[in-house]
Amino acid sequence: MASVAHVVLDHVSKVFYGPTGLNIAAVRDFSVSVEDGEFLVLVGPSGCGKTTTLRLIAGLEKPDSGTISLDGKMANDVPPKDRDVAMVFQNHALYPHMPVYENLAFGLKLRKFSKAEIQRRVSGTAQLLGISDCLARKPDEISGGQRQRVALGRALVREPRVLLLDEPLSNLDAPMRLTMRAEISKLHKKLNFTMVYVTHDQMEAMTLGTRIGVMKEGILQQVADPMTLYQQPANMFVAGFIGSPPMNFFTGTISQTTQGLFFRESSTDGETEINGFDIAMNNSLASSVSKFIGKRIVLGIRPEHIRQKEEPRHSTEAAIVRAEAEAIMPVGPEIYLQVSSAFHSFSARIPAPAKINLNEKLDFVFDLRFAQLFDPESQNRIG
């Protein structure tokens, strides 16, 4: 296989100009360095600029500002065919009238490779992807998972230095997506390609990426390894997007009493402030919120760190909140609960089986060792 490549995007922006004067900034001031052999996953909601970023790397779009470089060489004006970059699209786009072998070989034939070299590459790629027995069959004669492998193989036979994948698994059913995730992960470890992968599925991103870049409205919010994103999100958007069910957010005020610092859940309805529960800030949180005394703040905590009071506590730093069960969702070994406290609804995860009734009032333990605090104005994480 060809050598891998170092990809750098430096303050790249791309604006699409509409015919009616409505301009869309698809990518804004985007900077990232993808190291040799790295598997970077870009994740975010639809329309956040993920695919445009891939197309910029591939040369299918030209940036309005900023630079794109491959191994230290600027590639802004390099044609796609000269970038040694291959892209796998969401739509398999296989030639239906050609057998799998010809689909894999087509691009090599256009590049005037010898028959012997085409045979070597196609056979090797088919064996690598487990589709050797499909080479004589046409796309409509093989399964969806096999078609996805063929689409991937068509990129791999080129032996590119950078492999770009644009939501390649979105058209597969859930079991096949799980299988193909594992296959792509194993493939990366085996080939050590530089890979940039786009998905809107945060679970897919968490299980595949060496690092993950989270995007919102064309802006890169945070780039980090999966556990850093999960445990130390840069802002509320990242905290809410990464994780299923997502992180719970509670708006409130920090107050100082003789017993220490407290977070008081609250909300303003017109001119009336409604108060909910009080939580004593533990030592690890107190230092972060001391400058917010008398000010509003957002407390974030994930569902797995909220459990019923009857269970053994994880820490003496835990806090207790009373809430009413609104929805009960069994998911095998766990139960997801949607509960309400005062005016806030939030999610909790408890072990199954558990005898809980709708509208039942329950006491929950908030394990504040894992809580996150956010500035409600900037929405950035505090501390």
Structure, explained:
By secondary structure, the chain is α+β, with helices and mostly antiparallel strands. The chain has two domains: 235 residues, P-loop containing nucleotide triphosphate hydrolases (Rossmann fold); 135 residues, Beta Barrel (OB fold (Dihydrolipoamide Acetyltransferase, E2P)), CATH 2.40.50.140. It is built from nine helices and 21 strands. Strands 6-7-8-3-9-10 form a six-stranded mixed beta sheet, with helices on both faces. α5 links the parallel β7 and β8. α2 crosses α3, α2 packs parallel to α4 and α3 packs across α4. The longest helix is centred in the middle third of the chain and has 18 residues. It is elongated. It starts with 6 loop residues before the first strand and ends with a strand. 35% of the residues are buried. About 2% of the residues have low confidence.
Please supply descriptive tags for the structure shown above.
single chain, 383 residues, alpha+beta, Rossmann fold, OB fold (Dihydrolipoamide Acetyltransferase, E2P), 2 domains, 6-stranded mixed β-sheet, 6-stranded antiparallel β-sheet, 21 strands, elongated
